Amino acid sequence: MRQAVENENGLYVIECNKNDDGKYFVTFSNGETETFSEDEVMEHCLYDISVPLNCSFEDLVIKIKKRRALKSIVGYVARTLRTEREVRERLLFLGYNDAVIEETVAYLKTQGYIDDREYARKYVNTSLKTKIESRKMCMYKLVQKGISDDIAEEAVRVIDDNEQIQKLMQKKSVRQKEKSKLRGYLYSKGFSVESINRVLGDDTY
Fold first, then answer.
1. Residue 8 clears pLDDT 80, i.e. is over it
2. What is the pLDDT of residue 1?
3. Cβ contact 4:49 at 8 Å
4. How many CB atoms are located within 10 Å of the residue 190 CB?
5. How far apart are CA 176 and CA 173, in angstroms?
6. Fewer beta carbons under 10 A from the terminal one: N or C of the chain?
7. Per residue in 131-165, pLDDT tens?
8. pLDDT value, residue 2
9. Using N-to-C axis directions, what is the helix angle for 57-79 and 84-93, rounded to 10°?
10. 204 alpha carbon, distance to own chain's centre
11. pLDDT band for position 7 (50/70/90)?
12. Is 35 helix (H, G, I), strand (E, B) or coil?
């Protein structure tokens, strides 16, 4: 056990004890306690009771936990592009508080790991290649994933509902007597009455 004398220069370590599990239990001059890894203790000189830390307890903890958060989330965001909401929910699930989450998300944005606009663009491009979806349905799915209305609306502008309906008709080889059933299906998938009537050649619904 190491114990410090009074230090008038700000935050400092009072005690730094190594536990049986290899972690360090540190007590600070403001009365707060926290557990750190050996690497964290060494990096931030928490073993040195003679040197003031020159930062607040809150700033120190956020800095250390931000690094922990980055280590725990890097695999999650590196495998595939994630929305900001997905990353926030993941970090919350891992037990990080709001301050650490804010710092971590901000950093991931600067590094390009979080980009909701790019996520929306790629999602729409993939949808156009692999599915037949209306603009409304695609936007709904983006918003459900946490994309803002503005970004989602911008991304789905490339979707032409008329073309989507035509592709569906070609794929299914729709016959005349099946059109009434198709109308209901298209409407349930978010296609507008105007687009449906325009493609199917009927002014009534």
1. no
2. 43
3. yes
4. 18
5. 10
6. N
7. 888 999 999 999 999 999 999 999 999 998 888 88
8. 44
9. 120
10. 44
11. very low
12. strand
User: By the 8 A CB rule, do 40 and 34 touch?
Assistant: no
Average pLDDT over the chain reads: 87
Bridge partners (DSSP) listed for residue 33: 27
- The one-letter amino acid at 7: N
80: its two tokens: 């595939």
Burial of 171 (C-beta count, 10 Å sphere; 0-12/13-18/19+): exposed
Distance between first and last Cα of the chain: 82
Question: 3-class SS at 17?
Answer: strand
Assess contact for 192 and 138: CB atoms under 8 A. Answer: no
Q: Max alpha carbon distance in the chain (Å)?
A: 91
Is 123 in contact with 155 (CB distance < 8 Å)?
yes
Residue 24 tokens read as 């360090």
Q: Which position has the token pair 């009072």?
A: 14
The token pair at 21 is 């599990």
Q: Cα(130)–Cα(82) distance, rounded to whole angstroms?
A: 20
Radius of gyration (Cα) for the chain, nearest Å? 28
Cα separation, 148 vs 87, in Å, equals: 15
Which residue is listed with tokens 């209306």? 134
Q: What is the pLDDT of residues 85-120, one digit of tens each?
A: 999 999 999 999 999 999 999 999 999 999 999 999
